[in-house]
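Friendly challenge for the regulars: who can give me the C-alpha cells for this chain first? No prize, just bragging rights.
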Amino acid sequence: MTAFTLSLCVGAVAGALDVIPMIARRLSLRSCLSAFCTYLFASVLIFHCRLPYLPWWAEGMAITSMIALPVVLNFSGKDRRATPIVLLNALVLGLLISVAKHFL
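First reply, four minutes later:
Bragging rights claimed.
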C-alpha cells in the first residue's frame, strides 16, 4: 500500500469518527460532508509534510488545528458552543492521524 493510499484510508476513518456523532445529532448533510472532507484532506497533508521544530505526535494536531481555524472563526458568531468541540476534535483526531502515520 502506498503512502497516499494509506493516508486516504486513515483520513476516511478519522472523517468517519468525526461524522458519526454528527449524524446521531441529525446535523445537515453539508456539515457532515464538510467535516469528513476536512479530515480526509488533513490526513493527506499530515502524511506528506514535515513541520520543523515539532515532534511527530504534534504535527497532526498543528495541521488539523490550522485547517479547523476557519470553521471555528465561522462558528464564533453563530454557535459559540460548537467552538471548543471543533477544536477538541481537531486536536484528538490530529493526534490519532499522527500516531497512525508514525506506527503504520
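The two ends are 11 Å apart (CA to CA). Residues 2 and 102 are 15 Å apart (CA to CA). Your move, everyone else.
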